[in-house]
């Protein structure tokens, strides 16, 4: 009996687009252009003589018939993948993991630890894009988005992985020149500010019961990582996020003269698109972040 088989490249494009709910994500997974996926889907629709997706501006939704079709063919692709792996045919294309994270977090926390994840996943290319845009404002779709939280966004699952507080930090060399024993001694020092976080010092000084304190000088930077670098270089005293200065405190590059006076802060969280909720690599990266977050916070991973 002659087999009735549709064009296999078109079928592969349909399966990926239907499973991920996005032509763009399907294109990224298949390493082709968005237009190629769209063309393959139209080819399959012409071959079947029926529409497979309802197109709503930038969204695509499976038709009722297409959902049933995808339910039948999806497991076949998984069986084909398992059979290929079983008989030793090597995977020729590396998997790319797309991550969006704030710049200071990326520079000071993620980059120093990322080599450990790479060593455990040699076949994965991690692509990190720095951004402070909110999750709902991102133009591109990423496998994992790291932002403050916890917040709720439609179409994303959220999981905290790293807690944080804010406290004054400075170079030990600075304290050798000008001792700092009580909050009032800050009058003899330069306070380092970050333009995007203008309330950090006023809020901390209020908590330290010296709200009207006037420092010897003040310097402001437009990026948090510049403020922290200035503190390391003994330029002054910065309000440091505990998560992002933990390595510096551990090595002695920075010290916390008032470790008991801290401001609460939001946690770092992962936001994963619902279409990626079952992706093993994405879940592995989330689990790795949670493990590293516990280690960074001084907790013992279970």
Automatic annotation (TrEMBL):
Domain of life: Bacteria
Keywords noted in UniProt: DNA-binding, Transcription, Transcription regulation
InterPro entries membership: LysR-type_TF_proteobact-type (IPR058163), LysR_HTH_N (IPR000847), LysR_subst-bd (IPR005119), WH-like_DNA-bd_sf (IPR036388), WH_DNA-bd_sf (IPR036390)
Domain HTH lysR-type stretches: 6-63
Transmembrane segments: none
Gene Ontology biological process terms from the UniProt entry: DNA-templated transcription
Listed Pfam families: HTH_1, LysR_substrate
Keyword DNA-binding among record annotations: yes
GO MF entry, a single one: DNA-binding transcription factor activity
Signal peptide: none
Family: Belongs to the LysR transcriptional regulatory family.
Name of this protein: LysR family transcriptional regulator
Organism: Caballeronia sordidicola (Burkholderia sordidicola)
């Amino acid at each position: 009996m002659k087999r009735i088989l549709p064009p296999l490249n078109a079928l592969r494009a349909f399966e990926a687009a239907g499973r991920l709910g996005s032509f763009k994500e399907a294109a990224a997974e298949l390493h082709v252009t968005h237009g190629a996926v769209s063309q393959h889907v139209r080819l399959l629709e012409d071959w079947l003589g029926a529409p497979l997706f309802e197109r709503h501006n930038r969204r695509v939704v499976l038709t009722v018939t297409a959902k049933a079709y995808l339910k039948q063919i999806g497991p076949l692709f998984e069986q084909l993948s398992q059979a290929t792996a079983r008989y030793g045919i090597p995977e020729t294309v590396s998997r790319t993991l797309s991550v969006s994270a704030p710049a200071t977090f990326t520079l000071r926390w993620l980059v120093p630890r990322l080599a450990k994840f790479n060593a455990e996943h040699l076949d994965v290319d991690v692509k990190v894009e720095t951004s402070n845009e909110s999750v709902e404002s991102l133009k591109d779709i990423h496998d994992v988005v790291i932002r403050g939280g916890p917040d709720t966004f439609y179409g994303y699952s959220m999981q905290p992985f790293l807690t944080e507080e804010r406290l004054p930090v400075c170079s030990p060399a600075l304290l050798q020149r000008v001792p700092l024993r009580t909050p009032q001694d800050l009058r003899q020092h330069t306070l380092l500010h970050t333009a995007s976080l203008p309330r950090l010092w006023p809020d901390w000084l209020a908590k330290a019961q010296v709200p009207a304190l006037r420092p010897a000088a003040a310097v402001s930077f437009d990026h948090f990582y510049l403020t922290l670098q200035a503190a390391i270089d003994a330029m002054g005293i910065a309000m440091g996020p505990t998560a992002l200065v933990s390595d510096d405190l551990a090595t002695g590059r920075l010290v916390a003269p008032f470790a008991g006076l801290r401001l609460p802060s939001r946690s770092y969280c992962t936001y994963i698109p619902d279409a990626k909720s079952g992706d093993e690599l994405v879940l592995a990266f989330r689990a790795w972040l949670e493990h590293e977050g516990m280690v960074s916070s001084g907790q013992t991973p279970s």
